[in-house]
Design goal:
two-stranded antiparallel sheet, 13% strand, three-stranded mixed sheet, Arc Repressor Mutant, subunit A, 5 helices, Dna Ligase, domain 1, 2 domains, 5 strands, alpha+beta
Length: 141
């Protein structure tokens, strides 16, 4: 396996991803890294995100919004994509450790990993929806 040459820009990308829980897109990573490295190109950010995800240093997440999101927390954990505000958040709690082996029990192929993506409303959007519904009920009562 070839070793990867050190890159200050790659380290800045990884450092930023480790500093946030917001699961940013490549464009957001680019905008943050440019603050320290104004000469960095979007292409460089994409190449380094690809490299970091391929070598297992970060997770690449797709949640159906047309963008890829990135996460420096590589341990298995569930995510929620809010269908209202489009935020992507870590859910509390652990994923059942033997989930993959349970799924693979009746499958003849080879499963190597999984990603658990839930879809619904984040706490903030759920609270707003409840408040709107409560006001509607009050106006009918």
């Amino acid at each position: 396996m070839a070793t990867t040459k050190f890159s200050r820009q790659r380290e800045a990308i990884l450092r930023y991803l480790k500093s946030t829980t917001s699961h940013p897109t490549a464009e957001l990573v680019y905008n943050e890294v440019r603050k320290s490295y104004p000469q960095v190109s979007l292409g460089t950010v994409y190449r380094n995100l690809n490299l970091l995800s391929e070598n297992g240093s970060i997770l690449r997440l797709q949640c159906g919004d047309g963008s890829e999101h990135f996460d420096a927390t590589t341990a298995s954990h569930p995510h929620l994509f809010c269908r209202e505000c489009h935020s992507l958040i870590d859910l509390p709690g652990a994923v059942k450790p033997d989930l993959l082996s349970d799924i693979a029990a009746d499958y003849r192929g080879r499963l190597e990993s999984y990603s658990l993506m839930c879809f619904g409303l984040c706490e903030h959007c759920a609270d707003l929806k409840r408040k709107v519904n409560d006001k509607k009920e009050d106006s009918y009562g």
